[in-house]
Amino acid sequence: MKIISYQKLLNKKSVIYVDVRTPTEFAESTIPGAVNIPIFTNEERSEVGTIYTQQSPAAARLLAVDLVSPKIPKIIREIKELTENYQHVIIFCARGGMRSESIATFSELAGFEVYKLEGGYKAYRNFILKELQDYQLTAKLLVIHGFTGIGKTDLLYKLKDAGIAIIDLEGLANHRGSAFGSIGLGQPRNQKMFDSLLWERLEEIKDSKVVAIEAESKRIGISTLPPFLLEAMNNGLHTLIKNPLNSRIDRIINEYRGNYDQDEEHFLQATLEAITCIKKHLVKKIGNKEYNKLVNYCENGKLEKVVEILLTEYYDPLYLHSQNKCDYFDLEIEEDDLEKIKERIIEFINN
After folding, report:
1. Cα(304)–Cα(294) distance, rounded to whole angstroms?
2. CA–CA gap between residue 79 and residue 84 (Å, rounded)
3. How does pLDDT run across 198-239, given as a tens digit for each residue?
4. Tally of domains in the chain
5. Of the candidates 131, 166, 185, which is a domain's last residue?
6. How far is 141 from 344, CA to CA, in rounded Å?
7. Are residues 171 and 88 in the same domain?
8. 248-283 burial by CB neighbour count: b if 16+ within 10 A, else e?
9. Is the same domain home to 169 and 303?
10. What's the pTM value of the predicted model, to 2 decimals?
């Protein structure tokens, strides 16, 4: 059986990772781009574990054989299809144990060349942690500051289209660090997946001289930024964007409404749920009276008023007090047109 470490795969092309752990394990965290071909269902793995602890390892192995045997033909057909499309098919489980070893063995017996990932997901995770701990970022960061709703994320991608390297932290975290958190985005990514995606992005832009990034606090969604990145942001080139409140309100509503294909009722419900989720924080800041007014506006479809209150009475003061503290800006732009802002930033970078 061919066993290979993750490090040795970094420079290889046409690689696909096959995660044979349960759907639950896969959903929690995996190697980015991996496909899930589970050897056990969630319930089956739990059952095998129970037999292992309550009876014996031998009894658990017999049960595992009974559960897996009927699935082998289907699993091998899926592996076969992958070998036809990729040069390197890498099988892994939690620690490089019996689950990945059995699928790799069956695949080889069927005549397909595959590899087992040394140490499984645990070894991969340890590699990512070590990389982020020791990471040497050589690029200068262009840190974009501004209140919620100025279009920082859209601006990032306009800069990317113009050839400027970017790191979209909110995209990596699947969470907007702004008024509505993860409305329309599903669950935010956990620390493990965030770290993996961040490291991949850092590797993609490692030869860039300047990298644009939004100003963020230490925590984004449910993930925490690594110390080296926070330090690089503090030492970066700081750009402050300003535009009118009404423009910010319109931009926020249009952006989040777009996630619901103009389904106004669904959008209003999601907005109300988002407000309810942060009720404790809102009430502490704006009081019960203003909070109830906020809910009433939302229930009556007055989204402009909802966003205005959230911005002026909660998020703007919060931003000023706790986030992205910066005493000096290398560039300040008061403009509503993102194209013009982009051009100003590019001119600043080039000079």
Report:
1. 11
2. 9
3. 999 999 999 999 999 999 889 998 999 999 999 999 999 999
4. 2
5. 131
6. 16
7. no
8. bbebbbebbbeebeeeeeebbebbeebbeebeeebe
9. yes
10. 0.89
